[in-house]
């Protein structure tokens, strides 16, 4: 965690919580993080709760994010949601290329690239997820896989505002987090590659999050690493108390 990069802790609720449950979370969580200024906090609920949270977060410093988007601004695309629609609901961030979308929905690097561009054009910030599977890691391919995801996902993109989330697939939802040393190695590698793909100054400004079984009792270890600027939190973000402990970086509320 570097002085000049303000950390970001983002909740990825995945396909959890009805609107009522999302509002219950707000009621519990907001008082627990009152006065927290050292980190930015974002919550990415399912699309169905965005409107309610946009109202629930009014007057707070909490930012809203979506978990996915389509790349066109409108049109005959049944079932899709556009960047314009997300912006209209006060979304600041959009998660793109999460491993569940890559592996369960078969999302390709080309699709991810289109979405990153569309989100940037709309004036929001992509949280671009990269990470290797266990098999790839065991074959010694982790760096190459992540390098290619970065190169393809960011193709033809000028240095737009961007957050990268390094999420090793084997650590997501498994309870087995990467070691801080693994996170250090891969986030450092990502920043080196951003400097090669674009320029060094820009690469120094990009926030790189770690994601994969982040919990109140391990967040501090990750944040102690130089190139880890925050976390993307799945399971542990569903509880207001747990997520507040993570946001406070020390496990205490
Ligand atoms: P997890 O999920 O914290 O439940 O491992 C992280 C993510 O998928 O972003």
Overall description:
The chain has one domain (8-247): TIM Barrel (Alpha-Beta Barrel), CATH 3.20.20.70. Helix content is 39%, strand content 15%. It is built from eleven helices and eight strands. The protein has an eight-stranded parallel beta barrel with strand order 1-2-3-4-5-6-7-8, surrounded by five helices. β1, α1 and β2 form a beta-alpha-beta unit. The chain is globular, with a radius of gyration of 17 Å. 2-phosphoglycolic acid binds next to β8.
User: Helix count, per DSSP?
Assistant: 11
* DSSP, total strands: 8
CATH superfamily: Aldolase class I
Question: Mean pLDDT, rounded to whole units?
Answer: 95
Any key phrases for this structure?
single chain; 253 residues; alpha/beta; TIM Barrel; 8-stranded parallel barrel; 11 helices; 39% helix; 15% strand; binds 2-phosphoglycolic acid
Write the layout of secondary structure elements.
Elements: E1 8-12, H1 19-32, E2 40-44, H2 50-56, E3 63-66, H3 83-88, E4 91-96, H4 99-103, H5 109-121, E5 125-130, H6 134-138, H7 142-153, E6 163-166, H8 180-197, H9 200-205, E7 207-211, H10 219-223, E8 230-233, H11 240-247
Helix pairs in contact: 1-11, 7-8
The protein binds 2-phosphoglycolic acid (PGA).
Question: What can be said about this structure in brief?
Answer:
With 253 residues, this protein is of the alpha/beta class.
